[in-house]
Specification:
Blueprint lengths: L1 H8 L20 H10 L13 H13 L8
Length: 73
């Protein structure tokens, strides 16, 4: 249901969906955050900008290990 709604609302060239609480500076998109977490060894998965359960777990682990990092834009 949710994926069907998201797919129907998709417009090429539209801004990617963002969850500011999952962005870890200096990244400005979920895909950049995935890449940052992958380089640090926290995330293993596709760099696709999707907030998968694996990505969310990796972000939570990184924030637990780096509490001084502020998230969001």
């Amino acid at each position: 249901a949710g994926l069907d709604r998201d797919a129907a609302a998709f417009e090429p060239g539209s801004r990617p969906l963002r969850d500011p609480d999952l962005l870890i500076p200096p990244a400005t998109t979920l895909a950049e955050t995935q890449a940052l977490l992958a380089r640090q060894g926290y995330y293993v998965g596709p760099i696709d900008g999707v907030a998968s359960p694996q990505f969310k777990a990796a972000a939570a682990a990184y924030m637990r290990d780096h509490p001084q990092v502020e998230t969001g834009p």
